Amino acid sequence: LAALGGWVAALAAAALPQWRQSSYAGDAIITAVGLHEGLWMSCAAQSTGQVQCRLHDSLLSLDVHIQTSRALMVISLLLGFFGIIVSVVGMKCTKVGEEDPVTKSRIAVAGGVLFVLSGLCTLAAVSLYATQVTYEFFRESTVPINARYEFGSALFIGWGAASLTMLGGSLLCCSCPATDRRGQQYYRQSQSSTTREYV
């Protein structure tokens, strides 16, 4: 559930346009128009409540950090999607592969690994974007401080999504091998008891 919730949050973070937003720091505060930018579009919110959004026109004209964050988020969502499918197959509550519990638990571990990789990709994408926003905010520039950008809400959602996804994947990876070991010990004990009966 944690990994699934993290994947849904990562999907929401990737779709939201609030990866960075206009800063209200400084003396001359401008509140008439709020600017937001995301991986796929940029938006302008008027003080009247009207919001206008425009998709990024060209892929190749985008900054490198936006292209990299896009790629990492797409890879993260794909890994998480396959992690959901593999984990459902490996869960004890499903009927698929009930005849071989060891293989079933190994499938669950594979799903956990996919979730951990998905969380790492989300973490890398969000942290890379946040690093670039921080660099542009604090560098010496002629742009006034209230016309610069700072962290948007999607970055915090992305960090939370990465944490949840990696937590869920780690729990899947840690819980299943212990079950395998108990099953192997029980199998060895039963095997030794049957050999004693034959002796």
TrEMBL record:
Task performed by this protein: Claudins function as major constituents of the tight junction complexes that regulate the permeability of epithelia.
Entries under PANTHER family matching the protein: CLAUDIN
Keywords on record: Cell junction, Cell membrane, Membrane, Signal, Tight junction, Transmembrane, Transmembrane helix
One Pfam family hit: PMP22_Claudin
Lineage of producing organism: Eukaryota, Metazoa, Chordata, Craniata, Vertebrata
The species this protein was found in: Baryphthengus martii
GO MF, one annotated term: structural molecule activity
The protein's name: Claudin
Keyword Membrane: yes
Location of this chain's protein in the cell: Cell junction, Tight junction; Cell membrane
Entry membrane topology: Multi-pass membrane protein
Signal sequence segment: 1-25
Family per record: Belongs to the claudin family.
GO cellular component: bicellular tight junction; plasma membrane
Transmembrane segments: 71-91, 107-131, 151-174
